[in-house]
């Protein structure tokens, strides 16, 4: 016969559930505000009734957003997809390849070099913006797509994380079997190593995609042509003008709502790889 639960157990469960509920409300509150505020015109936003759906005008806001300045917002949107998508994909491949090399191969000074990689994790990206600008200026790529794409191809934390994943997911026996069958090192990495560490690849991709999508300081330093702006910089420029022209407020809020969509889609569509990784780790 099961022992009845004591009041202390019920109180502890209620405390934990209450804390989790508060955390969920805290995280969802800005998103709910953004969703309702995007349905308001400038007058409704300035009146402070953003949480009501009175004066619903989401369609009008979307139309004005698409029409303003010949649809420059969606040009910024395409730029952000290029920077974040291509940059995160290339960065993930570089990080996994580097992590694989640190795990599989023995070479002189390996741990010292890996220590330098770990030191790179400690350096804030904002501290590197000016040196990267000077380097980009020397090679003549300032105010081009390459000025934003090239710096995001390297992520020290991604290299560290990839080495950890390679150590947990890639058995040496599988690599040796592929070499015995005559596969070269690149073929072993591409066909065996990369496929086994795919959960790590997806993890690095999502981290880097989110970081590049929200990146603001690097494009601010590198770019002066508005046609090259990502969403973060373009919305900042509009928000700066909103103090003098309140009609920019609905554009900024509606644009911010649409800017959340790729992040949600990326996490929802790629979460199955994380689940597969957790399942694989549970039986090792």
TrEMBL record:
Locations listed in the record: Cell membrane
Entry keywords, A to Z: Cell membrane, Membrane, Transmembrane, Transmembrane helix, Transport
Key word Cell membrane present: yes
Topology of this chain in the membrane: Multi-pass membrane protein
Superkingdom assignment: Bacteria
Chief place of localization: membrane
Spans through the membrane: 9-29, 81-101, 113-134, 146-171, 192-213, 248-270
Record InterPro entries: MetI-like (IPR000515), MetI-like_sf (IPR035906)
Limits of the ABC transmembrane type-1 domain: 77-269
Chloroplast listed as a keyword: no
Pfam families assigned to the protein according to its UniProt record, in alphabetical order: BPD_transp_1
PANTHER family, A to Z: ABC TRANSPORTER PERMEASE PROTEIN MG189-RELATED, ABC TRANSPORTER PERMEASE PROTEIN MG189-RELATED-RELATED
Similarity section: Belongs to the binding-protein-dependent transport system permease family.
Protein name: Carbohydrate ABC transporter permease
Organism: Streptomyces wedmorensis
Taxonomic path: Bacteria, Bacillati, Actinomycetota, Actinomycetes, Kitasatosporales
């Amino acid at each position: 016969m099961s022992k009845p639960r004591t009041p202390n157990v019920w109180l502890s469960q209620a405390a934990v559930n209450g804390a989790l509920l508060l955390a969920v409300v805290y995280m969802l509150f800005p998103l709910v505000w953004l969703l309702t505020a995007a349905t308001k015109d400038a007058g409704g936003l300035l009146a402070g009734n953003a949480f009501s759906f009175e004066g619903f005008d989401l369609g009008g806001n979307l139309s004005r957003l698409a029409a303003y300045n010949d649809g420059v917002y969606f040009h910024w949107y395409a730029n952000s997809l290029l920077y974040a998508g291509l940059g995160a994909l290339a960065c993930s491949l570089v990080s996994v390849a580097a992590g694989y090399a640190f795990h599989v191969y023995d070479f002189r000074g390996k741990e010292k070099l890996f220590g330098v990689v770990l030191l790179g994790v400690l350096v804030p990206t904002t501290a590197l913006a000016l040196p990267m600008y000077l380097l980009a200026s020397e090679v003549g790529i300032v105010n081009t797509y390459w000025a934003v794409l090239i710096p995001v191809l390297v992520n020290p934390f991604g290299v560290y994380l990839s080495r950890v994943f390679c150590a947990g997911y890639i058995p040496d026996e599988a690599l040796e079997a592929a070499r015995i069958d005559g596969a070269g090192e690149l073929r072993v990495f591409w066909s065996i190593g990369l496929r086994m560490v795919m959960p790590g690849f997806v993890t690095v991709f999502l981290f880097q995609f989110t970081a590049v999508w929200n990146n603001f300081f690097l494009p601010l330093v590198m770019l002066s042509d508005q046609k090259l702006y990502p969403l973060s910089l373009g919305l900042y420029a509009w928000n700066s003008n909103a103090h003098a022209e309140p009609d920019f407020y609905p554009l900024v809020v509606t644009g911010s709502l649409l800017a959340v969509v790729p992040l949600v889609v990326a996490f929802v569509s790629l979460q199955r790889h994380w689940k597969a990784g957790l399942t694989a780790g549970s039986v090792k």
